[in-house]
Here is the input.
Amino acid sequence: MAIYSVDKIGWSPTLRMAYKYATGSDYENAIKYYKEALKEGTNNVLIYNNLANVYMNAGQLDEALVCVEEAINRAQDETVPYVTLGEIYQAKGEHKKAVDCIVKAQEIFEESVPELKDMIFDSIEEVIKKLPVRVKFDIASKDWIRIMYLVKTMRSNYQAEREYVKRGVSWEFLLDIRKKSLSSVGQKYLWVKEKLGIKGNGAIAIANTYGAMSAIIGSPKVKVVDRSENSSSIRIPVCWQYSVIKSLELDKDPGWFKCSCMCAEYINTVARAINPDASFEFNSTLAGGDRYCEGVFKISEDITLAKAVRPS
Here is the structure.
């Protein structure tokens, strides 16, 4: 989320309370205290931005838009409000505006970090490795920076693939390359699972690991909506990959829809790395016209039963 959350030196007790309620998803009280904090007359850019984020999370998108525009008017050279504005437009389904805002945020940020200009990375991890120490902390600790470079990388990848298709490269060839690139994905998730102390290898452990990793890399936002050892569901209400596809109008070509379906391949790779008997399947997708992507991790019941009755 694009919020100001560190360097709380100078924050008033009211502002601290607002932030506490916001992080606890008590949006009613968060809104109340942020509005009280505005009356104190300090940190107004921060407050309007964070208030916009609270309104967005509460589903009050018009109110969120008013607040973030006020933050931008007060500080046009700051990155965070533009990322917040992008997230609000994304939630409103205005994907081109959303991506344009992220690009604007990236341009502002790179004015202060010239090392990042004109650089494209395969992953956020590659961004972090190549940065000076003074910037590594920011990249590693702020979700809004991760969103910027996730969007930048995806735009670059999709634009390159579009050029390949124009030159006669088949979609089957591009998708095969993508599938081969998944070989190292599972190990990254296993490493994160271990570091976070997520126990077991059932469906709930897989869902929790995928959700945690998604939060770490910045996209997509994943909510685990059903938890059990043999069947756990996740929901993805917004996805920057989908927003980039829409913003570039690539969804008008059926080939891009197939390309976006690589998500299922990706998530299955993660599931099988944690448990070879696991599988994942979407039952609704944004690309298919649904309100969100939702799918289920399953552990084969036949295999689970066989293990349960296996003689010791």
User: Anything to note?
Assistant: The chain is about 60% helix and 10% strand. The chain has a mean pLDDT of 85.
